[in-house]
Design brief:
It is a single chain. It is built from nine helices and seven strands. The protein has 246 residues and is α/β, with parallel strands linked by helices. It has one domain: NAD(P)-binding Rossmann-like Domain (Rossmann fold), CATH 3.40.50. Helix 1 crosses helix 9 and helix 4 packs parallel to helix 6. The radius of gyration is 17 Å and the shape is globular. It starts with a strand and ends in an 8-residue tail after the last strand.
């Protein structure tokens, strides 16, 4: 398999870490971004202890100039970005009638505007090289909605709208653009939810368990190889059967 350069946003989080591990295990040269340097350095040491050399670059995906700087640094140190995983995301949950403008804009900027910011600097090179893989990490709640998450659901739904438009524009250049929509994953954030509430969530999942970050990393990896060249514009629901849309 050809070793390529992969840039994963939000790679130091639970799902992001699993994606970085998976792409590294497939022989790719992997980079991710950070905002908190101390936390990022501790994460990098942990990765190195596992035998993984993942490049860390500073930058906030909400800002186009910082996104461009990230891509420039990765390109300079590893080579042109061929694989982009738009994984960075946050929540600011509240019912809409109580939602403040900053709760809306923070989520839209981090989860959706970031997809433009990160993709714009890499798409030209992918088109020139006639090869590229772009994957958005959306959410089950972008498909079905969720009480108290109008901001989050709007951003996550928008990610797949971006996917299907970009897929059409770039298919003839050997670039595929796809979405993975995770269900409830046993990350630190979900495991911090009170056990009785977690049990109610699990009761709604046909497989009878929360997902793992590795489940999502496997789904992402499915879209990356040369063999996946005929799959573009797809939304892969990785949710244990909790939501089964067409």
């Amino acid at each position: 398999m050809t070793s390529r350069v992969a840039l994963v946003t939000g790679g130091t989080g639970g799902i992001g870490t699993a994606i970085c591990r998976k792409l590294s295990s497939l022989g790719h040269r992997v980079a991710t971004n950070y905002r908190d340097r101390d936390r990022a350095m501790a994460w990098q040491e942990k990765m190195r202890a596992e035998g993984l050399d993942i490049l860390l670059v500073p930058g906030d995906v909400r800002y186009g100039d910082q996104a461009q700087a990230m891509v420039d640094e990765v390109t300079g140190r590893l080579g042109p970005v061929d694989i982009l995983i738009n994984n960075a995301g946050i929540t600011r949950d509240t019912t809409f009638h109580k939602m403040e403008a900053d709760q809306w804009s923070e989520v839209i900027d981090t989860n959706l505007t970031s997809v433009f910011n990160m993709t714009r600097p890499v798409i030209g090179g992918m088109r020139e090289r006639r090869w590229g893989r772009i994957v958005q990490i959306s959410s089950i709640n972008g498909q079905k909605g969720q009480y108290g998450q109008a901001n989050y659901a709007a951003a996550k739904a928008g990610m797949h709208g971006f996917t299907i438009s970009l897929a059409q524009e770039n298919a003839k250049f050997g670039i595929t653009v796809n979405t993975v929509s995770p269900g409830y994953i046993g990350t630190d954030m979900v495991m911090a939810v009170p056990e009785d509430i977690r049990n109610k969530i699990v009761a709604q999942i046909p497989t009878g368990r929360l997902g793992t970050p590795d489940d999502i990393a496997y789904a992402v990896a499915f879209f990356v190889p040369d063999e996946a060249a005929w799959i573009t514009g797809a939304n892969l629901s990785a949710n244990g059967g909790q939501y089964m849309g067409w």
